[in-house]
UniProtKB/TrEMBL annotation:
Its EC number is 1.11.1.27. It is an enzyme of class 1 (oxidoreductase). InterPro entries: PRX5-like, Redoxin, Thioredoxin-like_sf, Thioredoxin_domain. GO terms for cellular component: cytoplasm. Keywords: Antioxidant, Oxidoreductase, Peroxidase, Redox-active center. Gene3D superfamilies: Glutaredoxin. This is Glutathione-dependent peroxiredoxin. GO terms for molecular function: thioredoxin peroxidase activity. Belongs to the peroxiredoxin family. Prx5 subfamily. The keyword Oxidoreductase applies. It comes from the Bacteria. Residues 1-177 form the Thioredoxin domain.
């Protein structure tokens, strides 16, 4: 079965709430796939982990830097997804000074699994993580997906060639090299 829409999941997020007393004014808030992707054109890029070298030095910062150009191409929101919990994603966002990209925690890896993108990275002590990819989602339908080569458990390298901000932006501007066939994912689990 080919996956054409983002899977239905509930993300466990934390949101600032001034009514919460104490030094940590945040509360849990569930966000559904429909709330995140419904009626919007979204770019989501997924990466192996917050605070990791490529993710921190290049992947997230470049999407943040090109945010206005994505908006000019009709993108409503840019989302960075990682199999990390909400606390880690929040602290990483603070450290990265992320103001435009929404950091979405896939703490249990449910979205990544249903996308067919959950891989075992135990070879480097990470456990189960998301494979690196990006996609353009239009009202919950996957319009285009950019999956890094080498998808497999315990893959030796961490490829970063096709899910970068410049490649996705080139697609949106219509300046990408034509693909042989549209990218599709096989549904796993």
């Amino acid at each position: 079965m080919v996956i054409e829409r983002v899977p239905d999941v509930v993300f466990k997020t934390r949101v600032r709430d001034e009514s919460v007393e104490g030094p940590n004014p945040y509360r849990w808030q569930d966000k559904t796939t429909q709330e995140i992707f419904g009626g919007k054109r979204v770019v989501l890029f997924a990466l192996p982990g917050a605070f990791t070298p490529t993710c921190s030095s290049t992947h997230l910062p470049r999407y943040e830097e090109l945010y206005d150009e994505f908006k000019a191409q009709g993108i409503d929101e840019i989302i960075c997804l990682s199999v990390n919990d909400a606390f880690v994603m929040f602290q990483w966002g603070k450290q990265q000074n992320a103001k435009n990209v929404f950091l979405l925690p896939d703490g249990n890896g449910e979205f990544s699994r249903k996308m067919g993108m959950l891989v075992d990275k135990s070879n480097i002590g990470f456990g189960m993580r998301s494979w690196r990819y990006a996609m353009v989602v239009n009202d919950s339908k996957i319009e285009k997906i950019f999956v890094e080569e080498g998808f497999s458990d315990n893959y030796g390298d961490d490829p970063f060639e096709t899910s970068d901000a410049d490649t996705v932006l080139a697609y949106l501007k219509g300046t990408e090299a034509p693909a042989e066939k549209p990218a599709r994912l096989e549904f796993v689990g």
